[in-house]
Design a protein that fits this description.
283 residues, alpha/beta, Purple Acid Phosphatase, chain A, domain 2, 6-stranded mixed beta sheet, 6 helices
């Protein structure tokens, strides 16, 4: 089975359309979107619901016309406050599945989604969790917050809150649905695993991947894991777009920034276990 994997589109409509055009042209019937789907600049509380209700609803309808299955989940830049709306719109289409915390079976393969991340320097703390021995990055925003319907529930002592109130990544992973055939299982996790340079930062020599995700994949040994979150990682001097944990292949395509004319994606042949990262100009 062939899959097109893309992530971190952040509401770039041209990249959405280009990924669909590529799938149609190449006869690929499954697209996986790894998170951070919605616009992140401007007023998110206004723009993200509009993007879901209007653009994504129309986009999902077009996917349905082309008989393409779409597996997707929101990421850390997509507000928790729009989760119910996203679930509702996905539910209007038989070919579209919100895979966050769920298992979706397609063509004999099991796809399991997980969209939590470790703490980062930015003020919006939606979907942030902790893990043992994790050292948070220096905060760039003086006030942290978790989104509600109209704004953010402000957390003024974030460091104390993060140590005492946040769930741990290992517990999130433990509660994911169990696969039946690990050799036919693909985990889609917005956060990359540690130690593989899939989370390599550009502005400092740091791989911010998750140790808990690494240990989870090392123990489970699925066929494949798909990641995103750190756009620049594959194109940094030390970064990778593909690596392995024993028999498990881990892929992090990265992505260009908003309104860049290039789209980054991967073509995955699950049966042949052939994986290609591609960069194309958006028409």
């Amino acid at each position: 089975m062939k899959v097109l994997y893309v992530t971190d589109l952040h509401g770039d409509e041209n990249k959405y359309r280009e990924s669909l055009d590529i799938a149609v042209e190449k006869g690929i019937s499954v697209i996986v979107n790894g998170g951070d789907m919605l616009p992140k600049l401007g007023k998110r509380h206004l723009e993200q619901p509009i993007f879901i209700n209007e653009f994504l609803r129309n986009y999902f309808s077009e996917l349905q016309r082309h008989n393409i299955t779409y597996l997707a989940m929101l990421g850390n830049d997509d507000l928790l406050a729009v989760d119910d709306l996203f679930e509702k719109i996905c539910g209007e289409f038989e070919n579209v599945h919100n895979m966050a915390g769920k298992k979706v079976c397609v063509g004999g393969y099991e796809f399991i989604g997980m969209n939590h991340i470790l703490d980062h320097p930015f003020g919006c703390k939606d979907r942030v969790v902790m893990e043992a021995h994790y050292v948070p990055q220096r905060q760039l925003s003086p006030v942290a917050g978790i989104s509600n319907e109209y704004g953010y529930d402000r957390i003024y002592n974030w460091m104390e809150y993060s140590r005492t109130e946040l769930p741990h990544m290992c517990d999130i992973l433990k509660n994911l649905p169990e696969p039946e055939k690990l050799e036919h299982t693909v985990y889609v996790m917005h956060m990359p695993p540690a130690g593989l340079r899939l989370g390599q930062l550009l502005y400092q020599d740091l791989d911010i991947g998750s140790v808990d995700i690494y240990e989870f994949l090392k123990d489970k040994q699925p066929l494949l894991s798909l990641h995103g979150h750190i756009h620049e990682a594959p194109d940094t001097e030390k970064g990778n777009w593909i690596n392995q944990i024993h028999h498990t292949v881990c892929i992090q395509t990265g992505q260009t920034e908003l309104d860049d004319k290039d789209l980054v994606y991967a073509e995955l042949d699950l049966q042949k276990q052939e994986y290609l990262r591609k960069i194309v100009n958006v028409k």
